[in-house]
Specification:
Blueprint: E1 15-18, H1 28-34, E2 41-48, H2 57-62, E3 67-69, E4 74-76, H3 87-98, E5 106-111, H4 113-125, E6 131-136, H5 139-143, E7 150-155, E8 158-165, E9 170-174, H6 183-200, H7 202-216, H8 220-240, H9 257-266, H10 273-290, H11 296-308, H12 331-340, E10 346-348, E11 356-358, H13 363-375, H14 380-385
Helix pairs in contact: 3-4, 6-7, 6-8, 6-10, 7-8, 9-10, 9-12, 10-11, 10-13
């Protein structure tokens, strides 16, 4: 007997932008928590330990008769390094167990991408999945990773080796969080906006160019505009790209990421994800010039924008070699293929707003691209100064 049935699932990806989410009278968070429930909704919050909400959360929940905050927000260390420590996952599971949360309860994660990845993974695996709400607090997470459907922690020294695909119940982007970020974190999300514009929307790319002077100065209104548009493009891709759970080998939203992921590892995560993506994009742009896919002038135009936004396009870690004298960064290609499975699939940009997928990389051309970036590494020192 051969029994086969198609199972069709419908998901709604609900991303909302607001200001001052825990202010009295702001119903954004309360509405997403009560939208599918009758009676009291039990909620547990995990928050980046570098954030200070003071006593704002408890009064907010006390004013909502349908919501029960089962404990004060639980602080966890943020930053990519926190995803290397499995004990943080166990801390979240222990809290879920101690407070008797069930699959009709909610977990809220407040923080940057690392906290969202960590808490999202724990929520997706406790009781085979507790509904979770993301409240991203950085430009990078509000415009990119935080509106995605992936969760994960690092293992075997590899980024997001353990993880899940789980569409969050909702994403609530409070743009007030962006006002208090350190400059390095304010800047980080801009590079992902450039990335998604390059592969999807020339008009958006040109708008970023128009705003570049304001963005370079990290002006709040310009940041919010670009972050909102970036988020919209990412959600559109997830909803309409045909492969939200990445069953195939293509991952166009990871343009520039094969080198970026490896560079983060080589720097022991001293280089942030945004900074690594800027360098990874620069490598692939110069590579595309070397193989005749992209015009030199267009590549220089993009690299100039990256510099105006405050990013370097080279780091000394790119020159790290193994015991056999091979560049460590090149191992990122195989690790990228292994992470996705199937054949190697790299997204490149032949023109502004367009993308093409290739299944092999000419290592000689990659080496030429790296040499080219080293020669023009005027931003090299600026990157080191941020460490």
């Amino acid at each position: 007997m051969d029994i086969r049935r198609d199972i069709t699932l419908s998901h709604t990806h609900n991303v909302r932008f607001t200001q001052d989410a825990f202010a009295s009278g702001n119903e954004t968070l309360a509405s997403v928590l009560t939208s599918e429930n009758e009676g009291t909704v039990r909620v547990l919050i995990f928050i980046d330990d570098q954030l200070d909400l003071g006593t704002r959360t408890e009064p907010y929940f006390e004013a909502q008769p349908s919501l029960e905050l089962v404990a004060a927000p639980i602080a966890l260390p943020g930053g990519e390094a926190a995803k290397n420590d499995w004990s943080h996952v166990e801390t979240i599971w222990q809290a879920v167990h101690d407070h008797q949360l069930c699959r009709h309860s909610y977990i809220i994660a407040i923080g940057g991408g690392a906290i969202l990845d960590l808490v999202g993974f724990a929520a997706a695996t406790a009781h085979r999945g507790i509904r979770h709400v993301r409240m991203p607090t950085t430009t990078l997470s509000q415009g990119d990773g935080g509106v995605g459907v992936k969760n994960g922690v690092n293992f075997f020294g590899k980024k997001n080796w353990v993880g899940t695909f789980a569409i969050p119940h909702a994403v609530v982007n409070d743009t007030d969080f962006l006002k208090t970020l350190p400059e390095r974190e304010k800047r980080a999300g801009l590079i992902e906006a450039v990335k998604v514009a390059l592969i999807r929307d020339r008009t958006f790319y040109e708008r970023i160019e128009e705003l570049a002077p304001a963005l370079g100065q990290l002006e709040h209104e310009a940041l919010v505009e670009v972050v909102e548009q970036s988020a919209a493009h990412h959600v559109d891709h997830i909803a309409s790209g045909g492969d939200p759970f990445e069953y195939g080998s293509a991952r166009p939203l990871d343009f520039g990421h094969w080198a970026a992921h490896k560079l983060e590892q080589l720097s022991n995560f001293k280089i942030t994800h945004g900074e690594a993506v800027a360098i990874g994009m620069a490598i692939d742009l110069r590579y595309s010039v070397e193989i005749g896919l992209l015009e030199e002038a267009t590549a220089e135009r993009i690299l100039s924008l990256i510099a105006t936004l405050g990013f370097a396009t080279h780091a000394p870690e790119l020159e790290t070699k193994d015991a056999q004298g091979r560049l460590e960064v090149l191992k990122g290609l195989e690790e990228f293929r292994e992470h996705l499975g199937g054949e190697l699939t790299i997204t490149l940009v032949p023109k502004l707003g367009e993308k093409v997928e290739v299944h092999e990389m000419d290592k000689a051309a990659v080496l030429k691209a790296l040499d080219s970036l080293k020669d023009r590494a005027s931003g090299h020192e600026a990157l080191n100064e941020r460490f």
